[in-house]
Design brief:
Blueprint lengths: L2 E5 L5 H17 L14 H13 L3 E6 L2 E9 L9 H5 L1 E9 L8 H15 L4 E6 L4 H9 L3 E5 L10 E6 L7 H10 L2 E3 L6 E3 L3
Parallel strand pairs: 4-5
Antiparallel strand pairs: 1-2, 2-3, 3-4, 5-7, 6-7, 8-9
Helix pairs in contact: 1-2, 4-6
Length: 204
């Protein structure tokens, strides 16, 4: 299955909010408190404002399968207060709001979006992809471990966020990952050289 990544457009906001509500309902049905008001999750209107600002800044992306939206991710150099140190933030990009449409769950869309985050990180000259995961969602922790991330630590109880399980993956770990190579192609489109069957990044 081919997954294409494109920048989110401003009219994608309703789509992203729908994906978040879809996934929140799915989580609640399985007993998870992730994104719930009771566990201090972001209300959907606040979430929409945050994502709207991220889209305007060019930080949000949409995965498509055969032209149909299949997931979203936001990638930038910001994180909730006191989760990562200044040194860690300076050498990483941070993943936010990785959400895959349930119709495409288990088909590699999330890994492709994470690989896109890694490609963005490499182009920025940084070495780590980092993220915070909902502290109590151990199934989500397992997902990130299977995607090659390691648990750096769980931030202490004095932190205000309910999302304090801190995961990271070094950029060197992605170099032989097929989804990472595809993401590099997305960022630097490949252009044929003459009549030869080789390709080279087009930076111009």
């Amino acid at each position: 299955m081919t997954v294409q990544i494109r920048p989110a457009a401003l009219d994608d906001l309703n789509l992203i909010c729908r994906l978040r509500q879809q996934r929140a309902s799915w989580l609640a049905a399985r007993g998870s408190d992730q994104w719930s008001a009771e566990a201090s999750g972001l209300p959907i209107d606040f979430f929409a404002r945050v994502v709207d600002r991220a889209m305007a800044a060019g930080e949000t992306w949409i995965a498509e399968v055969h032209g149909e939206p299949a997931g979203t991710i936001t990638v930038n150099d910001r994180a909730d207060t006191q989760l990562w140190t200044e040194a860690e933030l300076a050498d990483s990009l941070i993943v936010h709001y990785l959400i895959v449409d349930l119709r495409y769950a288990g088909q590699g869309v999330g890994r492709r979006l994470l690989a896109h985050a890694a490609a963005l990180t490499q182009t920025r000259g940084r070495n780590w992809v980092r993220l915070d995961a909902w502290t109590s969602n151990t199934d989500l922790h397992t997902y990130y471990r299977r995607a090659g991330f390691r648990l750096a630590r769980v931030a202490g109880p004095d932190r205000p966020s309910p999302s304090c399980a801190l995961f990271e993956r070094h950029i060197d770990d992605w170099l032989m990952d097929e989804s990472f190579i595809d993401s590099r192609t997305d960022i630097f489109p490949m252009t044929p050289l003459g009549h030869y069957p080789t390709v080279s990044p087009a930076f111009g």
